[in-house]
Every structure is written in structure tokens, then in C-alpha cells.
């Protein structure tokens, strides 16, 4: 249901593994597992906990989410 609801507002570049794309829509991989921080706060957080930067917030384009 998640994928059907938002897929029209997601742009995925060619070559992205379809399994990884599916994970982006899986409710078990969203919510509390993702947070948004300023870049400097993210760098600080990475020193404190095992985490990984997976994206960047930019100005809105024709699609809300770009998988690159």
C-alpha cells in the first residue's frame, strides 16, 4: 500500500536494484529508523552512534523523492 500511495512522486534513476527500491516503501524501514538533521549535527551524531547518512534534503523538484 505504501508504494501504491507514493510511487508517483518518487524518481528512481536507472540501475538501482529493484530489491533496494522495494525497501524504500517497506513500513519496517521507515519511521523511527530515519531522522533529519543539519549536516553539522549529522556529523556529530555519527561520532556518537553507529549510523549512516543515506540522503540529503534539497529544494523540491518535480518529484518529492529522488533515489540515486
Describe the overall structure.
It is a single chain. The chain is built from 3 helices and 2 strands; from the N terminus they run H-E-H-H-E. Helices cover 34% and strands 9% of the residues. With 68 residues, the protein is α+β, with helices and mostly antiparallel strands. The model has no long low-confidence stretch (mean pLDDT 85). Strands 1-2 form a two-stranded parallel sheet.
Which regions contain 5 or more consecutive residues with pLDDT less than 50?
Answer: none
DSSP helical segment count: 3
Portion of residues in beta strands equals: 5-15%
The side-by-side strand order for the widest beta sheet comes to: 1-2
Radius of gyration: 14 Å
Helix content: 25-40%
Number of strands: 2
Spell the H/E element sequence.
HEHHE
Report the average pLDDT across residues.
Answer: 85
Largest sheet: 2 strands, parallel
Calculate the terminal CA-CA distance, rounded to whole Å.
23 Å
Shape estimate: globular
Structural class call reads: alpha+beta
Keywords:
34% helix, two-stranded parallel ribbon, 2 strands, 68 residues, 3 helices, alpha+beta
Summarize it.
With 68 residues, the protein is an alpha+beta fold. It has helices at residues 2-6, 18-25, 39-48; strands spanning 10-12, 65-67.
Give the SSE layout.
Blueprint: H1 2-6, E1 10-12, H2 18-25, H3 39-48, E2 65-67
Parallel strand pairs: 1-2
Amino acid at each position: 500500500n505504501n508504494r501504491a500511495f507514493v510511487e508517483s512522486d518518487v524518481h528512481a534513476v536507472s540501475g538501482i536494484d529493484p530489491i533496494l527500491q522495494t525497501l524504500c516503501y517497506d513500513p519496517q524501514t521507515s519511521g523511527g529508523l530515519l531522522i533529519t538533521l543539519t549536516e553539522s549535527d549529522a556529523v556529530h551524531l555519527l561520532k556518537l552512534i553507529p549510523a549512516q547518512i543515506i540522503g540529503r534534503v534539497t529544494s523540491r523538484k518535480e518529484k518529492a523523492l529522488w533515489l540515486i
